[in-house]
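QA checklist item 7 of 12: single-chain prediction sanity check.
[x] sequence parsed
[x] length recorded as 255
[x] structure emitted
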Amino acid sequence: MNDQPVLTERRDGVLVITLNRPDARNAVNRDVAQGIADALEALDADDDLRLGVITGAGKGFSAGMDLRAFVQGQRPFVEGRGFAGIVQKAARKPLIAAVEGFAVAGGFEIALSCDLIVASKGTRFGIPEVKVGLFAGAGGLLRIPQRVPYGVAMELALTGEPILAERGYELGLVNRLTEPGGALDGALELAGVIAQNAPLSLEASKEILQQVRDWSQEEFWDRQQPLLDKIFNSEDAKEGATAFAEKRQPNWQGR
């Protein structure tokens, strides 16, 4: 068995990033944080990769920060990227979290740092930090209310109790729901649909959607325009229109 804390595998334009500490419930120590950061750097640097999928080895996604390592003085943060090498700065390209079993505390916050979540039925999501005198300080309190109603976000934060993937799917937190054991396959199926699209268009769409909540209507048009100019004048835009007219699949170049 590969004992690297984070594994990567390329699959048809998708980089699969696997948290690989199953005996520790994929808890995040310094090595895991650096491994995730390195994988995200590799994803953004490789023109042959369209997006990434993050998953966990074993029975669950991640239980969050490795408390034993923390007590020993390890800090699972990467400069410029924050906890787990992702919560403050993820990838420029789209990311999907493929979640089995559980994603709790910092593990949930890793999943929330991704753009889409695919989860199997029965998977638990939660931020139990208030039960141990803490609060979800790795982006959970920012991102949960962006994805679920205020009251639900507040209940998660104040009770520390988890919700199941089925409820998360009803609320829009989970994009696709699978049978147990099928989250990675479901994420790869969704990734395959996304990977067919123009890479510059994917990155621009993600960038706008991540920032648009803070923009006024006037700012929206002003801030979108440079990206619009870049995309409309790209070779891929011409290729997309040509391929559509010729009724064939486009050959994207990312430029």
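[x] summary fact logged: DSSP finds ten helices and eleven strands in the chain.
[ ] second reviewer sign-off
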